[in-house]
Amino acid sequence: MPKYVGALDQGTTSTRFMVFDRSGAVVAMDQREHEQIYPRPGWVEHDALEIWARCREVIRGALAKAGLTARDLAAVGVTNQRETTVVWDRGTGRPIHNAIVWQDTRTDALIAELARDGGQDRFRSKVGLPLATYFSGPKIRWLLDNLPGTREKAEAGDLLFGTIDSWVIWNLTGGAAAGGSGGGVHVTDVSNASRTMLMNLRTLDWDDEMLAVMGVPRTMLPAIRASSDVYGESIGDLAGVPVAGDLGDQQAALFGQTCFAPGEAKNTYGTGCFMLLNTGTEPVDSKSGLLTTVGYRIGTAPATYALEGSIAIAGALVQWLRDNLGLINESAEVEALARTVDDNGGVYFVPAFSGLYAPYWRSDARGVIAGLTRYVNRGHIARAVLEATAWQTREVLDAMNADSGVALTALKVDGGMVHNELLMQFQADVLGVPVIRPKVAETTALGAAYAAGLAVGFWSTPDDLRANWASDRQWQPTLDPARREKEYGLWKKAVTRTFDWAE
């Protein structure tokens, strides 16, 4: 009887494979980064073949570290950077172009053209999303419009589209089989499909009107399945292991944090920052700039929906400080540098590198450092970098409270930045509610493992998963409310300075 469940977590900057036991504890983990490709300002790409190579490496690495084989795993789940778009040849398995990453803004002219008739919220009631460069549908359109011969191949059924989960599952389950016919299983789940602008939120199927608007042939699209379901069997190092879970990374974190009841919320601090609030089995339309998205679906049960506040740049700003400015050598050094000063010295850093996401949705915005004086030093810049994530989260929380009518009483947090204790204390201070870190902070991979394990009976019910959840550390707000609101006003003033920069 297998004792473990695996999770392949394919993120924006790295890929990891994690193995969990029945209590949700980490048994093994291996992680590798992949190249970030910037062909021109605003464009961000990944090499999908490199990503698949990293997937194979980390699977092999994690199993070797724990002395495990495929026979020790009851199932494997997949979680992924969500809107990043891959189109590949069904017969050869080769991508026709680098993957276009969710942060990429090359579709801004198409977005502006579509918004001229009906505005930015033209399709929001149907797909839950504003018109924005963030989502997959416009990225597919760009590929078909700009690579000669691709539209004809797509319409003939020779090309497949997927977000990274589809690409990984297709390869895990066989990829391009001998003889030129695709052998892999071509699927996605409801959470990833809800990020394409192509799925109807209520029917949970590809929407003919949206396919026509975006110019995407249905023949390219994967089958939409539940998030916890058996899709097929792995080959290679995981030969015979059922691939049984699929969730976009933020929905996987919601699942891993066991936010199974309406009103429960989590915030994940990774490359970007993403807060999700479980709203139950009916989608809630946002009036405050949030996204209405599918949270997850277990087997044949009704789908669970969520409101999401998406922030493009969080941990990526620390990487920028390291890689572009060289102010630190390792990302972990940012906390010590920020602690060399008592406050931000009046500096606010709004990292609108690829526009502003929730709650503004301004693709014309660009990054700004405001409040610079001769007094400001490296420490103040580092502190402003960390505070940017907390202030952006405050703006999302305000929008969430307005849409849901429910004031949040505590925030569950996860992701790489939650080990930065200065940031977590400041986050509690600016929200005015406790911030709670779980014992297993890498809840994205855990959520994918949970979904896969439920599908094969490794865990019986979601209540089994709730029993696994435990708090590791809590931070209570200590900042004077008057000072908090004054500094929040300065942050919002800095945000307005980013508007209307890109033409």
C-alpha termini separation: 60 Å
Total strand segments: 23
Overall 3D form: globular
What's the helix count? 16
Range of strand content: 15-25%
Largest sheet: 7 strands, mixed
Helix proportion: 25-40%
- Give Rg in angstroms: 22 Å
| Mean pLDDT across residues | 93
What order do the strands of the largest sheet run in, or round the barrel if closed?
17-18-16-15-21-22-23
Structural class: alpha+beta
Question: Which helices and strands occur, and which strands form pairs?
Answer:
Layout: E1 4-10, E2 14-20, E3 26-33, E4 45-46, H1 48-66, E5 73-80, E6 85-89, E7 99-100, H2 108-115, H3 124-127, H4 136-146, H5 150-155, E8 159-163, H6 164-172, E9 187-189, H7 190-193, E10 199-200, E11 205-206, H8 208-214, E12 223-225, E13 228-233, E14 242-248, H9 249-256, E15 265-269, E16 273-280, E17 291-296, E18 304-311, H10 315-323, H11 333-338, E19 348-350, E20 368-370, H12 378-404, E21 411-414, H13 421-431, E22 435-438, H14 443-455, H15 462-468, E23 471-475, H16 481-496
Parallel strand pairs: 1-5, 5-14, 9-12, 15-21, 21-22
Antiparallel strand pairs: 1-2, 2-3, 4-7, 6-8, 10-11, 13-14, 15-16, 16-18, 17-18, 19-20, 22-23
